[in-house]
């Protein structure tokens, strides 16, 4: 607001503002001093006289005397539009000090016609000058110099004018047709203000409000060239104010778009739409600076950046700079981008059978709220992060060399075992879980490349989200339908494997989607390969909760059976022993060779067949040298076997097959009334032991039937004679001969009954 304030003693009364500055050129050292202003008036609002004291204590630098805040009682407001009072003073070694009385004390000095004021001071021996500081930008006025102890009343008059101002100029961004906002203060109430935009060749008007202020946005058309523009505002009273700003008349930015979020190895694309003919570049805060952008087509500028592997930023500002032919630049920083050095993929595992793969080149896994920093390089690594033996029953892989499925058993299989397979980009697995689980893999996508397949069974995974491989029918196509026999997936809802053949129509239920974290069994008529390229597998939203099983756990599509074989005579483990397990219900049999005495056989039922509760497995063993024999064992499958998909037979004892048949000494000998007759058989045969008396008469025949080769020398295995004849009568004391016939072998020995 523009206000004219008059100070005049005479015909009229006006409002005054005083600032008194006392300057002492020679003040007594270390002596406190005070000064005061006394105003006298007949105005009923102003007590007579009013005295304001102020002063300085030289012993405390810049300390204001308490008298400054002790002012006689003042009348309450309002006092109208009155200036305020400032008091300033200085002393030896002190700076000027100003005290704004208005906020603390609601009073003003009012001097009417014919009235004056006096200035009183104490302990001042030097000249004193009286200065009036009107405020509002007016320079201080030296009212009078005095050198006496009295200041007479006097008449002083002047006009105070507070200048108008333009406080804000806000031009919009770019373009010939633009807007500009102007704000001003200290004009007259409701005063009309004319605004001249100078070089912009535009004129506009605004009206000040009740406070003498205005704020208005004006549309203007900018004239060339670009540069500073002086803006003048002139009120009807003659008040003027001016300011300047830079108005850019170059090409306008229409839009900026950035691809986000991205991950390591992916491309960030920045697209700028603007007027043609410019030069554009972009920067990503904390990542990269001043990358060029190419204009193609006209008015569309594009720049790219491939995210480095080791960069992670969240909401980094993307700054785009467009420069026209005149060298004028325009900047846009409205876009942000997020770059992650790794991606997440969550795999959901059901209780029971799961076809699984490791979807990323993993650096960490998230299980619940826990993050485990670990790569997944071996089956044992996967077993550990899945919960170990408490949650994992089996991790099944396929051995190309043996052409058999094989199992890694957490808590049982040594980490050095061949079944602790390496996990790579295309490694497929079948995982049998004791409990359902979610696990999130964190890492980078596998590298693109070729997946090689052998003739016969292949357990594989698709390592990348390849746009050309959406369903298993696509896989059959890229492999060649003349080479593919079957592509087998697992139907978790039905609890069995299902097959897609090259003749199966696409889109049928067995033409399942290809997914990250899942494996497939591919049966090939001949060797083949296919190339994989694409983005890393990623599922920002967690997969659904493992579906409840739609079948009872009375059957399983996978079954592992293991045990350890030891020698009957020494208890030591037996290596290179062939153990065969035959599933009597299906007729399927499989064989494994012991290593460190351990065997493990994995059945994967790829058709409609399953292992059911009540089925019988028959286990037998032999070795190539014929030195050991394992009597056939039959195991009936239980609900626990099916639920775990695993049977552990524990320790199996194999009989040692001797290199020659032999009849051994009976024990005890002499005896009364019973004894045991041990023997060894090199070959299986019908076996008969005949007991004679000393006269060659037959006392008893022990027909042992057909006996496998082995050593029969313990009580449990030896032939038993209770000392009776064929009629069940006890025989007399004496010497008897026992004779063994086994195939082509026969031998006799003596024994004594002693009563």
User: Which percent band covers the strand fraction?
Assistant: over 45%
**SS elements, strand count:** 59
Count of discrete domains: 6
Structural class: mainly beta
Strands across the major sheet, in which order? 20-22-25-24-23-26-27-21
Whole-number average pLDDT?
76
Main β sheet profile:
8 strands, mixed
Q: Roughly how much helix do the residues carry, as a percent range?
A: under 10%
| Uncertain ranges | 1-162
**Morphology call:** rod-shaped
Describe how the helices and strands are arranged:
Blueprint (H helix, E strand, L loop, with lengths): L3 E4 L6 E2 L3 E5 L9 E7 L10 E7 L29 E5 L6 E4 L9 E2 L5 E5 L6 E5 L8 E6 L11 E4 L3 E7 L5 E9 L6 E5 L6 E5 L6 E8 L5 E9 L4 E8 L5 E6 L3 E2 L3 E8 L4 E6 L3 E8 L4 E7 L6 E11 L5 E12 L2 E7 L2 E5 L4 E7 L2 E4 L5 H7 L6 E8 L4 E5 L20 E5 L3 E8 L4 E5 L2 E6 L10 H8 L4 E8 L4 E5 L18 E6 L3 E5 L22 E2 L1 E10 L10 E6 L4 E6 L4 E7 L6 E2 L3 E7 L5 E9 L2 H6 L1 E11 L5 E2 L11 E3 L1 E3 L3 E9 L4 E10 L2 E3 L6 E3 L12 E9 L2 E9 L2
Parallel strand pairs: 3-6, 21-27, 43-50
Antiparallel strand pairs: 1-12, 2-8, 4-5, 4-9, 6-7, 10-11, 13-14, 14-17, 15-16, 15-18, 18-19, 20-22, 22-25, 23-24, 23-26, 24-25, 26-27, 28-35, 29-34, 30-31, 30-35, 32-33, 32-34, 36-41, 37-40, 38-39, 38-40, 42-47, 43-46, 44-45, 44-48, 48-49, 49-50, 51-53, 52-57, 53-56, 54-55, 54-58, 58-59
